[in-house]
Amino acid sequence: MAELKREDARIRRTYRLLLGALTELLAEKPFDDIRVTDLCERADIHRSTFYDHFEDKFHLLTFGIRELMDLFVPLSPTTSKEDYQQVMHRIFKYFLKNRQMYTLLFLDIRNASAKALFRENYIRAYEGLMKESFSSVPREDQLIYSRHFIGGILSVVDWWLETDAKMPPEELAARFVRLISNHLNIFSQGK
Question: Within this chain, do residues 90 and 164 fall inside the same structural domain, yes or no?
Fold first, then answer.
């Protein structure tokens, strides 16, 4: 599949329409019951356009992770606690901005398979960042940390969405970073 060219407004529009259609359809039925035809009809795009960009609905869902993963790029072994908190703030703001889709995806038990797919792709993407940033740390430790970290974020997001995201993203980020900072220091020392 072709990579998104950020300067191509038509492609960005198509992706936005398809992700919006996915969000709307998740409000009506489980992810497993959504068909590519449903997505195309709701987004008012032709099936061939869909298949020009995505292999299937699972590929569309995993595409949504890319924007989220772009927020992690600033993280490295030398990231300060303040910078780390800013990154986490952007991540929680992303979830708040896309609250409708993630509430439907994460909290509706009918979407367990889609949530599992999201979680596994999110972990794999983060494992790739860990491999680049912590090359001297044993790979098994990187894998364990990635699952722990992403699992922790998603668990916090679940709780946050369940409580109607009452805590502001900046406060949530500050608390999250404060609570995990010891883990970050221990992992960075292993580098």
Answer: yes
Q: How far is CA 150 from the centre of its chain?
A: 9
Same domain, 48 and 91: no
Helix pair angle (81-97, 99-107), 10° resolution: 80
Of 2-11, 51-60, 72-81, 175-184, give the lowest mean pLDDT range.
72-81
Nearest-angstrom CA–CA distance, 183 and 24: 38
Q: How confident is the model at residue 47 (pLDDT cuts 50, 70, 90)?
A: very high
Q: What is the CATH number of the domain that holds 39?
A: 1.10.10.60
